[in-house]
Amino acid sequence: MSELEIAMGMIIDVFARYAGTDGNAQSLSKGELKVLMEKELPGFLESGRDKETVDKLLKDLDANGDATVDFNEFIVFVAALTSACHKYFQQGGAK
Fold first, then answer.
1. Which CATH number characterizes residue 66's domain?
2. HSE, side-chain direction, 13 A CA sphere, residue 40
3. Which residues neighbour 39 within 8 Å (Cβ) at sequence distance 6 or greater?
4. DSSP string over 43-94
5. How far apart, in whole angstroms, are the C-alpha atoms of residue 11 and residue 7?
6. How far is residue 59's CA from residue 66's CA, in Å, rounded to a whole number?
7. What is the pTM of this model?
8. Is residue 14 within 8 Å of 55, Cβ to Cβ?
9. Model confidence at 6: pLDDT above 80
10. Range of the domain at 28
11. Which of 26, 69, 89, 91 has the most crowded Cβ, counting Cβ within 10 A?
């Protein structure tokens, strides 16, 4: 498999690992999203404001308004975050 195929598989695997622990394997609940972010993106949440951050993120990602994040909504998040990181590193990153 190519590096890109491996990366895509890893994204699918990460979503599947966290989705469904609260019941529905097709989407992330707010709690599942928080656990995913704590474990997979530990620098993203600010201590003391984690609940606010997760609430806002869930609201922003939840395009269909069902109070969960499905895989398509999750992919939009991963793509936006990846794009922001790419831009950051193109501009010289943290010096």
1. 1.10.238.10
2. 15
3. none
4. TTSPTT-HHHHHHHHHHHH-TTSSSSEEHHHHHHHHHHHHHHHHHHHHTT--
5. 6
6. 10
7. 0.81
8. no
9. yes
10. 3-94
11. 69
